[in-house]
């Protein structure tokens, strides 16, 4: 049997989301041709071999299990070493089910590249650019893909720049950490009195803050799976009674509704899918990504963000997009593992030329 290491947890504000995604994947790979090795990463950054149950992972009690053993990465032997015994643990493929922060910004991908083991998902550059919202928007603009007007502010010295942006675009606007996922630290600012608190909230997650004009319209997501030959998932639509698609809405759907397929004209859907595919290939994305757009009231299609490791419960948006076109959850997971191996073999081939 092929051994696949599922990495979960991590130094991220999306730690809990990672646990739920990983639990779903581990359950799905039971009784398949894969042997699952569970590697948990604490919020402090320590790595452990986990022998506990899926429920312990899902409920975040996995670390208290007596069977947890601390491990370290061994680059020379391309695997993990148990720190207490020195025993080597080899795996065939890595699935980093790590959301936000160090899981999606290229840092983890760099480490996995050094391990020289096939891993699921985008590489270093695609991950880093996708996580940096402002950099992503600038890259997209070189492809003719428009995005929402925005600026970056870092400290009080940028106050004049912020004031100029407000003078041009007015309120409401959004303040976001430039590098964060799951809408952590995002605030909608309706008037000047809310500005300082929103800046402080975003600064908890990043030193670079993205100031973004509000788009009147709807949010449309497009899932893509593949390396060079792509599978384009069905587009979904976010419907909100009020506010925006924040962390609470994304994972509890208090007032939000996910509409699948999106209720948009076929020509609009085709344009969104074409833009998503162009961006995916130009960035060099591999494995998967969910690319989110705004469809403005005037018909303009504007890039919002790319999520290179979207949520992975069976009812998360990305798996549902794939299910809608006939790719069920188990086959999707197995396809991602196959794509990881194919991408690694391609890199080895290039290195040998």
UniProtKB/TrEMBL annotation:
One of its GO terms (cellular component) is cytosol. InterPro entries: ATP-grasp, ATP_grasp_subdomain_1, D-Ala_lig_Van_CS, D_ala_D_ala, Dala_Dala_lig_C, Dala_Dala_lig_N, PreATP-grasp_dom_sf, VanC1/2. Pathway: Cell wall biogenesis; peptidoglycan biosynthesis. It holds the Pfam family Dala_Dala_lig_C. Residues 137-338 form the ATP-grasp domain. Mg(2+) 1 binds at residues 292, 305. The active site is at 14, 182, 316. It is found in: Cytoplasm. It is an enzyme of class 6 (ligase). Its cofactor is Mg(2+); Mn(2+). It catalyses: 2 D-alanine + ATP = D-alanyl-D-alanine + ADP + phosphate + H(+). Keywords: ATP-binding, Cell shape, Cell wall biogenesis/degradation, Cytoplasm, Ligase, Magnesium, Manganese, Metal-binding, Nucleotide-binding, Peptidoglycan synthesis. Its EC number is 6.3.2.4. GO terms for biological process: cell wall organization; peptidoglycan biosynthetic process; regulation of cell shape. One of its GO terms (molecular function) is D-alanine-D-alanine ligase activity. Mg(2+) 2 binds at residues 305, 307. Binds 2 magnesium or manganese ions per subunit. Cell wall formation. HAMAP family: Dala_Dala_lig. Belongs to the D-alanine--D-alanine ligase family. This is D-alanine--D-alanine ligase. The lineage of its organism: Bacteria, Bacillati, Bacillota, Bacilli, Lactobacillales.
